[in-house]
Amino acid sequence: MIQAMSMRASAMRAILMLMLAMPLLSACGFNTIPTREEQAKAAWSEVLNQYQRRSDLIPNLVETVKGYAAHEREVLEGVVEARAKATQIRVDASLLENPEAFEAFMESQSQLSGALSRLIAVAENYPDLKASQNFLALQAQLEGTENRIAVARRDYIEAVRLYNTSLKTLPSMLWAKFWFTDAEPLPTFTIAQENQNAPTVDFGNGG
């Protein structure tokens, strides 16, 4: 019984010491790596949400354009095929842990952006299409989504920069080496790539 009481007392002392040490650990950057990793993953989730929002708009956009420009078959099929390829890639938490899968996903989104740019350019040649209320509504939604994609991508780039930097700078790099040993740099992309690939959605007043 005395031994059991001694063990409980030791456990209580250990818990108390841990509680007292937590503020010190935080001050020494102990929480930096897990906190920044979660922030980066949350930012990535927002990127995926906005890409999905864009993908959801495409079927209605294609059907609307087809109603006024059915003979633009190559451009319309290009958008449909690009969307299909983008949605075929499995998107889950492991995507950030696989640089090749990440690159393939981003390339598919880039191809979809290019296909949308060509579709938008074609729409410029059809005044009746540009004046369509349905098209104008889809145009506004697509423009808003592209803007949100740009913001989400920039937020992700910054979050990953902070996280990856914490893995190689003191004092957090010491925690990465001795405590968070499974922490790995996250993949990213450049703003230059984003600016090059993002479609421009602007038809003035639609007239």
Automatic annotation (TrEMBL):
Gene3D superfamilies: LemA-like domain (1.20.1440.20). GO terms for cellular component: membrane. The keyword rRNA-binding does not apply. InterPro entries: LemA-like_dom_sf, MamQ_LemA. Residues 1-27 form the signal peptide. Its main location: membrane. It comes from the Bacteria. SUPFAM superfamilies: LemA-like. Coiled coil: none annotated. This is LemA. It comes from Nitratireductor basaltis.
